[in-house]
């Protein structure tokens, strides 16, 4: 999917060129970029959200917009399902779902009608192949309705999580100029070694992985994970038995900021994830993608999108804070962790771009 994402890099480049030296609301910029990347990689559609603020970008805002009423609905879904049933609350705004559904079905129908002549290496190609195999998993089949559900889930879950991670990573690079320069040098070395930016080149950028991992620790995409116990479970070494059907709330934000597991948790320190330290992290105390069979299925793609954006920016621009930048960022953790005042930064052209 590298080729699909590269088109989105060009849109990002044009946007930054038009806003050099200005105050840029980096979260919105990141959301437009990740929207383009997810839509291209899932549906094979060029959304160009930097120019077209309607369409997929508007659908994304409707899906995951934060307001008091929206937060109340999400709260009820997790803690008071009877209220959801009584008032028939919808977790995702229906008009946004309808837009994504129509876009997916149009793209899917066109691709299916091509009988394999058109291949974009995107989610639609994967789903068509799965449907042809007539697979079934515990009663789940790849029916048209289920295929649409996968597409909506990929879009709604993918663009926001990736956008937040990207924006917060850029903020920390702007605040920590030494880390920014060290990362830029690694990127330059990798590009020179491989001759171009390839998937293998990105995979070998260990410091980049460390920076992104620390960003996801300090700014996890969600403050908690919701699960349900599917069988009676006796906790080893305790008298406690978790009964079947019990909802389980796992505080991701609380774990990531617990000093028992991460010293000086407010500090942005990529070295927590270097080769010597990463093995010291206790299992299930670092959960940016969840864990186990229900962990995020799109984490590899999400990380690729974020990393490629950071690489593209650092190859051509210097990230700086400005008078609107706040440090530390004031976070609003429910239902999605966001910065209350946005993520304002300034971008200047790098003299020795590479």
UniProtKB/TrEMBL annotation:
InterPro entries: Cyt_P450, Cyt_P450_CS, Cyt_P450_E_grp-I, Cyt_P450_sf, Insect_CytP450_Detox. Its main location: endoplasmic reticulum. One of its GO terms (molecular function) is iron ion binding. The keyword Heme applies. Keywords: Endoplasmic reticulum, Heme, Iron, Membrane, Metal-binding, Microsome, Monooxygenase, Oxidoreductase, Transmembrane, Transmembrane helix. SUPFAM superfamilies: Cytochrome P450. CDD domains: CYP6-like. The chain crosses the membrane at residues 67-87. Heme binds at residue 296. It is found in: Endoplasmic reticulum membrane; Microsome membrane. It comes from the Eukaryota. One of its GO terms (cellular component) is endoplasmic reticulum membrane. Its cofactor is heme. It is a peripheral membrane protein. Belongs to the cytochrome P450 family. PANTHER family: CYTOCHROME P450 (PTHR24292), CYTOCHROME P450 6G1-RELATED (PTHR24292:SF45). This is Cytochrome P450. It comes from Aquatica leii.
